[in-house]
Amino acid sequence: MKNAFLLLFLISGLFSFAQIKGKITDEKGNPLPSVTIYEDNIYNGTTSNDQGFYELSTKKQGKHTIIFQFLGFKTQKLTLDIASFPYNLDVKLIEESFTLNEVVINPKDNPANQIIKKAIANKKANIEKTAKYKADFYSRGIFRIKDAPKKILGQKLDMFDEVLDSTRSGILYLSETVSKIAFQKPDKMKETIIASKVSGNDNGFSFNNAASANFDFYDNYLDFNVNVVSPIADNAFSYYKYKLEGSFYNENNQQINKIKVTPKRDSDPVMEGYIYIVDDSWAIYAVDVNIKGEQMQNPALKLLTLKQNFSYNSDSKIWVKTTQTIDFTFGMLGINVSGKFTYVFSNFEFEPQFTKKTFTKELLTFEENANKKGDEYWNAIRPIPLTIEESTDYTKKDILQTKKKSQVYLDSIDKKSNKFRVPEIITGYTYKNSFGKWSAKYDGFLKEINFNTVQGWNIGTGFSYTKNDREKGKYTNFGVDFDYGFSENKFRSTGSFIHKFNNINKSEIQISGGSEVAQFNEQKPIKELLNSVATLFFEENLMKIYEKNFASFLYQREVTNGVFMKAKVDYLENKPLANTTDQTFFPKQKDYTSNNPLAPHDYTTPAFEKYNLVKANIDAKINFDQYYLSRPDGKYNFPNDNYPTLTLGYEKGFAGSEKKYEYDHLKAKIEYNPTLGNKGVLSLSAKGGKFFNGEQISFVDYKHFNGNQTYIGFSESYLNVFNLMPYYTSSTNDSYFELHTEHNDKGYVMNKIPLLNLLKSNLVLGYHLLSIPHRNPYSEYSVGLDNLGFGKFKMLRVDYVRSYQNGFQKDGVVLGLKFLN
Fold first, then answer.
1. Cα–Cα distance, 685 to 562 (Å, whole number)
2. Contact criterion met (CB below 8 Å) for 723 and 799
3. Which of 551-581 are b and which e, b meaning 16 or more Cβ less than 10 Å from the residue's Cβ?
4. With b meaning 16 or more CB within 10 Å and e meaning fewer, what string describes 409-424?
5. Residue 175 confidence class, pLDDT cut points 50, 70, 90
6. What CA–CA distance (Å, rounded) separates 337 from 15?
7. 650 by DSSP, 3-state: which?
8. What is the DSSP-derived secondary structure letter of residue 756?
9. b/e string for 732-771 if b means 16 or more Cβ within 10 A?
10. Per residue in 264-319, pLDDT tens?
11. Rounded CA separation 101/81 (Å)
12. From CA 772, how far away is CA 542, in angstroms rounded?
C-alpha cells in the first residue's frame, strides 16, 4: 500500500509539472518583472519573477490561449498548440502607445473626472460580481537589508552576520504560502494553508496569508494602520485630482483609460500614481500607486508601492484581481530594509454555495504537515519561479539551519556570550543554554535605584531562571527579587513561579510571595523614577506606600473563543509605613508631606492599622465576535473592532484579622474603539462597581483611581487616568463610575490646516468623568496633539486639560512621554 501511495504521489507530481515556461523581456532584452500571465477565460494565472522568468501550470495538452499583461506595454494574446510539456515560450512585450483625443480640458469638463465618477457610480455593480468566491492563493514574501551598520548606538549589530555578504547586504527573510480561500463580502473569510515554507526554518510557519493581502479599491478605505482613501472612494474628489493620460485597447478590444491620481494635500492619508479603468463597465483594470510612510503615520516606512492587475473572463463578464505586489522600503538608525510581497489568485469559483459552517470565527488554519513539504512539491506547485538569489538563500539557510541546531554550534555561541565581565556585577549578567532552551539571569544593581521618603535611597536586584519552548508554546520562569532601603535600613524579598502550559488557550499559573513595598493604588499611577525626581528636586513626595507581606496564587486561561477567565487568591499581611528621611538635593524650602494619603500633614497617625486578610478574585473578559488564526504553534486572537470588550469581576475579602476588614466588591468595565472611516478612532472606557459590607474596610482595599499631579503622561492614550486629579482624594469604599473617552482624528483635521499640517500630528479630544456618592462629579476636558516628535521618532504628546468639580477647578498642560510607558 505504501509503495502504491508513493507511486501515485510521484505520478501526480510529474503531472503537475505540466508547465508553460519562459522569459519575458522588453524590446531591448531587459527582463520584465511582475508581468501577469493567465489563460484566456480561465482564472489560471501567475506572474514573472524579478528576472522576468515565469511558469504557468496547466493540466492538459492541446490548444491554449495565453495572455501576457503588463502596465505600460501592449497586452499579447498568443494561441498555442501544445503537444508535450514543459513547453518553452519566451515573450517580448512592446511598449503601449497611448492615445488621447483632442479635448479642451477645463475644471468643469475634465474627462478624467467623468470616468472616475462613472467608476464610483458603478462600484456596487462591480463589487457584486466578485462578492462571493473560492480561489487558490499563493504568496511570497522577502525582506532584504543593504549596507547594514556594524554598530547601532554603540551596540554591535551581529545577529545577521552569517547571512550577509561582504557589503553587509543580504536576505533577512524569505517565505512562501499556498492556500485555498473562501471569501464573502464584506469581511467573511476562511483560509486553509496547504503548504508553508520559511527559509532557514524547517519548522516555521509563514505569516503570509490572504487576509493581509485583501486590499480592495472598490472599498472607500484601505487599511494601512490608518484608513487610506481609495481613488474611487465615495468622497474621493475631496482628496484627489485626476488627469486622463491616455487610453488603449486590450486584446478583447475593450478601451482602457489610464488616469493619473494626484493628492490635493500630501499630508492626507492618500496615494499617488495610476488607476486604469475599463470603459463601459467602469471596472478596475489595474492599479499602480505609491503611499508614503508619513501618510500612514509610520515615519520609519519610506515608501510603499501597491500594484494590482485584473483579468477578464468573456463568459462571466467579470474582471477579477489575479496578481498583486507590495514593495516597500523602511529604515531607521542606519538600517535600511526593502521588502516585497507577491500574491497570485487563481482558479476562481464565483457564487459558490457556501454552507453555514464555511465561515466561522476561525479565519485561518493549517493542514497537518503544511510546513513539511519537500522541494519536489514546491517545484511542482510554485506559480512563480525562484530567482537565483532566492534559490541560493534557501540552500544557504538550509545548511546554516542544520549547523545552528547542533549542540556544538549552540554551545560555541553561548560560550562567547556567557563570558563574565567584572562590570556585570553592577549592570547584570545572563547565562544561556540555547540547546537546552533555558537561561539564568542576574539583574545587577542598576535594575532599580530610586528614592522615596520612607525607604530613602533604595536599590533592587534579582535572579531568574527561564525555560522557553516556543515550538510547543510552553514557558517557565522562577524568580527572586531583593530590595533594600538605606534610610529605613530594611531588606525585603519576593519570589515567583510562572508556568504557561500552551499557546492555544494560554493556560497559565502564577505563584508568588514575600515582602514588598507597594503603592496604595495597585495600578501604580506614580512612576518610581518620576517620584524620585519630584522628591529630591522639588520636595514633592507624591508616592504613598505600605508594606505588603503576601502569598498569591493565580490561574488564567481562555475557556472558549473570546472568553478569558482569571482566578486569584491572596493571603495578605499589610503594615503601614512612615517617613524616615527628609533628604533633598537643595536646601529645604518646605517639609515633605506624610506617608498618609488621607492626612498629608499628619505625621503621627498612620493611614491604617496592621491587619491580615484573604482576597479572592475572579474576572471574566469577553471579546465579542472574536476572530482567530489557528497555527500549529498557537492560537492568535483578533478582537472584532465592531464590538466592545466587556470585563466582569468579583472580589471577596474574608478571613480577616477582624471582621470589619471583610467585604464584597462587584465591578465591570467596557472598552470600545470603533474606527470612524477616515475621520479617526473613537476610544471609550467605562468602569463601575459597588462595595458591599465595606463600611469599615482598610484604606488599602478601597477603589483607588489613577490621578496625576506631575503633568507628565506615560501612555499611548489616556483612557485610564485623570490628568489633573489628586491621587487619593476620590478613593471610595462605596459605589463608583468612571468614564474616559478620546477621539484621535488620525490627521483628519490637522492635515487640512496650513502650517500645522507640517507637524503631521493628530488632534486628540478627550473627556473624563468620575462619579462617587456624596460629592459632585469630577470631570476633565482636554485638547491635544499626538504623534509629535523629531524626524522618525514620534513619541510625544501634548494636551491642554481643564478640570471641573462644582465649577472650574484648575487647568494645565500635560506632556506625554510615550517612550517611558
1. 19
2. yes
3. ebebebbbeebbebebebebebebebbebbb
4. ebeeebeeeeeeeeee
5. very high
6. 39
7. strand
8. G
9. bbeebebbbbbbbbbbbebbeeeeebebbbbbbbbebbbb
10. 998 899 999 999 999 999 999 999 999 998 888 888 889 999 999 999 988 888 99
11. 39
12. 23
State the Cα–Cα distance between residues 172 and 157, nearest whole angstrom.
Answer: 13
CA 4/CA 383 separation, integer angstroms: 28
Note whether 145 and 172 are within 8 A (CB): yes
Residues 282, 302 contacting (CB under 8 angstroms): no
Amino acid letter, 661: Y
User: Which of 724, 707, 714 is closest to 802 using CA atoms?
Assistant: 724
For residues 268 and 747, is the Cβ–Cβ distance under 8 A?
A: yes
Please tell me what DSSP assigns to residue 358: T
Total Cβ atoms within 10 A of residue 670: 16
User: Is-contact 728 597, C-beta < 8 A?
Assistant: yes
Q: What is the DSSP string of 49-85?
A: -TTSEEEEE-S--EEEEEEEE-TTB--EEEEEEESSS
| Distance linking the first and last C-alpha atoms of the chain | 61
Cell of 277: 479603468
C-alpha distances in Å from residue 199, one per residue of 158, 172, 205, 383, 399: 19, 9, 10, 18, 11
> 744 with 802: CB under 8 angstroms?
no
* Global pTM value: 0.88
- Quote the Cα angle for 214-221-299, to 5°: 90
Strand duo 87-88 + 19-25: pairing = parallel
Lookup result for grid cell 471610595: 732
pLDDT tens for 570-611 read 999 999 999 999 999 998 888 999 999 999 999 999 999 999
Cα atoms found within 13 Å of the Cα of residue 159, Cβ hemisphere only: 4
Yes or no: say if 695 and 733 are a contact pair by the CB < 8 Å rule: yes
C-alpha cell recorded at residue 409: 554550534
**C-beta pairs of 187-192 under 8 Å, 24+ apart in sequence:** 188/359, 189/214, 189/359, 189/363, 190/358, 190/359, 190/360, 190/362, 190/363, 190/364, 191/137, 191/363, 191/364, 191/365, 192/364, 192/365, 192/366, 192/367
What's the rounded Cα separation, in Å, for the pair 698 and 68? 78
CA distances from 804 to 91, 179, 769, 807 (A): 74, 57, 10, 5
**407-417 and 388-405 helices cross at what angle (nearest 10)?**
80
Q: What is the pLDDT of residues 416-468, one digit of tens each?
A: 889 999 999 899 999 999 999 999 999 998 888 999 999 999 999 999 999 99
The answer to whether the Cα torsion of 717, 720, 722, 726 is positive or negative is negative
Q: Is 605 exposed, middle or buried (0-12, 13-18, 19+ CB in 10 A)?
A: exposed
One-letter identity of residue 440: A
CA-CA distance, 149 to 333, in Å (whole number)? Answer: 9
Give 17: exposed, middle or buried? Use CB within 10 Å, 0-12, 13-18, 19+. middle
Q: How far is residue 708's CA from residue 815's CA, in Å, rounded to a whole number?
A: 12
**Distance from C-alpha of 705 to C-alpha of 562, rounded to nearest angstrom:** 28
